[in-house]
């Protein structure tokens, strides 16, 4: 903003003064609220008057074609739907709190409407992208897996809405192409969920020591050293400190190996990490840790998973811990405090779809809001079911998305 004197007439000679310079004295941020507009799509028809005069010939008519909306017979356009999903899954703003914000902009609605919009968009336009990413993910040979509890009020299994449901997360590793993060909503934490999702998958699953992770066909398991370290940290004693120190030695090496190629990392682990692992396991095995105290629990946890804890030594693509999956699931944990629960299983599934695209977009440097606008605007007008190959151009790492939606 420019500020001029109220009077530019000289007080001495009464002559008109001329500009002599300017000084920037401060800067301030100015917030310009968003505006809501009603956009009408009007199709115009044209006819040929010359043909119309000829009674033996039917007049030719051409009509403009309006693009299909994401939700038929709904006032919600792509930008509204994108902001709705963005605010819930990136800003962690629950739908009931969004209602008043939309009213401020002139869109009168309620949280049930907003919930239905999220479910419809997720099922119709986000699910096809999710399913393609799942095909790509399960064709890889290494997966991070983790799970956290959720809550669904209206459950199909007859259990109370107070019973725990779960959100599972599956994440690829950087050495096997673009990062993919997929969530799956489930009513249980049982092995059947993992079996269903990984059907056709052959390779290694990196996970914690939960018993559901085990004895699945064509799958080997690598366990998480971060969990081992936590158990020894809980054993608040001199021996607990020794256990933690062994783990810390491995982590110091991993920081050195971070940017190595998988083959070079495997060789380095064999040379430097393997002796530490062997020494640690020998120490645990020979130490008299008995009973139900924290020290005995740490020892049992470690010795019951020797094969799985050694897996990272033989494959440079395997991470030493499951932290990437735990980090990926954190937005669900944070959001859970604001969303509280899902009313229906359809809502929980929609949440999982939205979180999947949000976290995968984030991992690939994509602006999630812009990505949503593009998906919701363009996919309804493309033959994605007849020609599913089109969806390859809408994956977060595709040239199309990287060129138009990068941060």
From TrEMBL:
Domain of life: Bacteria
Transposase IS66 zinc-finger binding domain sequence ranges: 8-51
Pfam family, one: zf-IS66
Segments forming domain Transposase IS66 central: 73-349
Protein's name according to its UniProt entry: IS66 family transposase
Organism: Sporosarcina oncorhynchi
């Amino acid at each position: 903003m420019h500020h001029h004197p109220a009077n530019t007439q000289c007080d001495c000679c009464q002559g008109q003064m001329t500009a002599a310079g300017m000084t920037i004295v401060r800067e301030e941020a100015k917030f310009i609220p968003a505006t809501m507009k009603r956009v009408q799509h009007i199709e115009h028809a044209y006819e040929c008057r010359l043909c119309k005069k000829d009674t033996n010939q039917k007049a030719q008519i051409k009509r403009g074609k309006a693009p299909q909306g994401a939700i038929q017979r709904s006032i919600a356009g792509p930008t509204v739907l994108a902001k709705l999903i963005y605010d819930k899954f990136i800003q962690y703003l629950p739908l009931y709190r969004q209602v008043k914000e939309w009213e401020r902009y002139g869109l009168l609605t309620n949280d049930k409407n907003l919930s239905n919009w999220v479910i419809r968009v997720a099922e119709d336009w986000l699910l096809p992208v999710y399913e393609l990413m799942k095909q790509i993910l399960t064709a890889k040979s290494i997966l991070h897996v983790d799970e956290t509890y959720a809550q669904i009020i209206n459950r199909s299994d007859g259990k109370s809405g107070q019973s725990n449901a779960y959100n599972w997360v599956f994440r690829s590793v950087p050495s096997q192409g673009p990062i993919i993060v997929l969530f799956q909503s489930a009513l249980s934490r049982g092995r059947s969920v993992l079996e269903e999702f990984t059907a056709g998958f052959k390779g290694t699953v990196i996970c914690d020591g939960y018993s559901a992770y085990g004895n699945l066909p064509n799958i080997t398991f690598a366990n998480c050293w971060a969990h081992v370290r936590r158990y020894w940290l809980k054993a608040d004693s001199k021996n607990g400190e020794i256990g933690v120190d062994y783990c810390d030695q491995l982590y110091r090496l991993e920081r050195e190996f971070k940017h190595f190629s998988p083959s070079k990392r495997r060789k380095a682990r064999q040379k430097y990490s393997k002796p530490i692992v062997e020494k640690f396991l020998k120490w645990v095995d020979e130490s008299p840790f008995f009973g139900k105290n924290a020290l005995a629990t740490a020892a049992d946890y470690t010795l019951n998973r020797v094969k799985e804890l050694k897996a990272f030594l033989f494959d440079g693509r395997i991470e030493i811990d499951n932290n990437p999956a735990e980090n990926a699931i954190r937005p669900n944990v944070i959001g859970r405090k604001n969303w509280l629960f899902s009313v229906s299983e359809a809502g929980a599934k929609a949440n999982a779809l939205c979180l999947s695209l949000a976290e995968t977009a984030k991992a690939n440097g994509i602006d999630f809001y812009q990505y949503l606008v593009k998906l919701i605007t363009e996919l309804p007008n493309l033959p994605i079911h007849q020609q599913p190959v089109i969806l390859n151009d809408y994956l977060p790492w595709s040239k199309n998305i990287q060129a138009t939606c990068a941060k």
